[in-house]
Amino acid sequence: MFDEKITFDKFIRWFLVAALIFAVFYVLNYLSHVLLPFFIAWFIAYLLNPVVKFVQYKLRVKVRAIAVIITMLLVVTGISCVVYAIVPPMIDQAERLGDAANKYVLHTANGNRIMVMVREWIQEYLPQIRHYLNSADFTATIKNSIPKLFSFLGQTASIVISIIASFITLLYLFFILLDYERLVKNFIRIFPKGQRPFWTDLMQDVEVELNNYIRGQGLVGLTMGILFCIGFTIIDFPIAIGMGILIGVLTLIPY
Asked: 186: closest CA among 169, 199, 175?
């Protein structure tokens, strides 16, 4: 293999292939913020497409768009029900944890003296605090805080942009689900005809293995989350539901 002669034509071909790969990665990296919602929407569409097919073919909803809308409404309703069932107990348990922490602080040896110590500290350093507020250092502190304020506003703007990106992802999701079967069927046409059988078999194998992995890992995560929620609730562990859900989600992470 190493005795094969490298001609100028082969060198140019390899160079062009390497340049093309580099250009593709550069463009993907440059457009990552724009393409990320699209890829997320495609992955969610991959997960929801079996539900859409069930609604369309088993429930005999002939119009694909209506089947997609029904599926998205079912998913949103399911998530809302889960959140409604989980969040109030988590808030109640967090309040209980806060009350337990307050009781612990108040019943320790120095707990009753905390307020007295704070009051004595304020009375002792009150003249220095007033002097600092009237000095130039306080003005400099205000000036230094202005960039932090703008940084906070920038973070708020990024949150708004994230919300907008979420709506864009939902829009992508709707149209991908609308033409999902057609897109998957015609995707193979981007490859040359001689290589299509190979890529078809590869995509089928990947789909089968990925389906098995997602189902298995999801079942394991769901089982672990339910068992830990029940166990933590039995022993009256603070934030039992939250900790159980966290453990279930962490189980989904490959290791």
From this structure: 199
In angstroms, rounded to a whole number, what is the distance separating the alpha carbons of residues 246 and 228?
A: 10
Q: CA distances (Å), 104 to each of 65, 112, 126, in order?
A: 57, 11, 30
Model-level pTM? 0.64
Best CA proximity match to 178, nearest among 78, 72, 74, 76: 72
The answer to whether the Cα torsion of 197, 202, 205, 211 is positive or negative is negative
Report the range of poorest mean pLDDT among 48-52, 95-99, 132-136, 179-183: 132-136
Q: What whole-number distance in Å separates Cα of residue 47 and Cα of residue 211?
A: 9
Q: How far apart are CA 101 and CA 95, in angstroms?
A: 10
